[in-house]
Structure to design on (216 residues):
């Protein structure tokens, strides 16, 4: 075994700063999410709204990437992307997805499973209009997930689009907008001592949410 692999096998740290008890949980997972998200923001976690989105196509091929949470409420979690991207094609074929927030300095993770659907054009337009000018231009430039010859291709197209929309009015691209993930399960993971981590899963039922403790 190489020295690098030996060091990797021995790489570990003890989780012991918090712990989580059932009595501390809100009855609704979105309320609990808000409490943890606000704490991540207050503790200056880097990109607290960054979440891993995993999607699969009709053949079961799974891909994951990091996207940014841009809104959430009792209906679910909203992010924006190109409708021509690989993830968009997968979500069109299979609307079941998973999200993961990893706030490692707090020894916390939140895992979500559910179904995804597009938000309204009006909501996408409202968000798009509030983006920085360069970000709006970028949405027109990138044919997301497509093979390109070089970075210069992007830079040249960016300059062309910037000139085209130099007056500052950038319309919403037809192939760009938002998705909402409606949760079916939400799991809150809190690191604890001796690898006896605390895990609680909210599971949606007809009468509301059932809360279950899971073995670590």
């Amino acid at each position: 075994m190489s020295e690098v692999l030996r060091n990797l096998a021995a790489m570990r740290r003890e989780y012991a700063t918090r712990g989580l008890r059932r009595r501390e949980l809100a009855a609704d997972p979105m309320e609990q999410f808000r409490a943890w998200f606000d704490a991540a923001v207050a503790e200056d976690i880097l990109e607290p709204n960054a979440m891993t989105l995993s999607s699969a196509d009709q053949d079961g091929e799974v891909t994951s990437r990091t996207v940014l949470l841009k809104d959430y409420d009792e209906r679910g979690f909203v992010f924006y992307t190109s409708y021509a991207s690989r993830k968009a094609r997968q979500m069109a074929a299979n609307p079941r997805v998973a999200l993961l927030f990893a706030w490692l300095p707090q020894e916390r993770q939140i895992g979500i499973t559910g179904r995804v659907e597009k938000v309204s054009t009006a909501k996408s337009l409202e968000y798009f209009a509030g983006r920085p000018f360069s970000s709006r231009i970028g949405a027109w430039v990138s044919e997301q997930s497509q093979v390109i010859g070089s970075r210069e291709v992007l830079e040249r197209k960016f300059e062309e689009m910037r000139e085209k929309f130099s007056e500052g009015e950038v319309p919403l691209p037809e192939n760009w907008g938002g998705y909402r993930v409606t949760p079916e399960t939400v799991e809150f993971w809190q690191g604890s001592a001796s690898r006896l981590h605390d895990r609680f899963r909210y599971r949606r039922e007809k009468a509301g949410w059932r809360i279950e403790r899971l073995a670590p």
User: Anything to note?
Assistant: The chain is about 30% helix and 35% strand. Strands lie at 50-56, 62-68, 71-73, 76-82, 96-103, 108-118, 176-190, 198-205, 208-214. The helical segments are 3-9, 29-42, 86-93, 121-129, 133-141, 151-164.
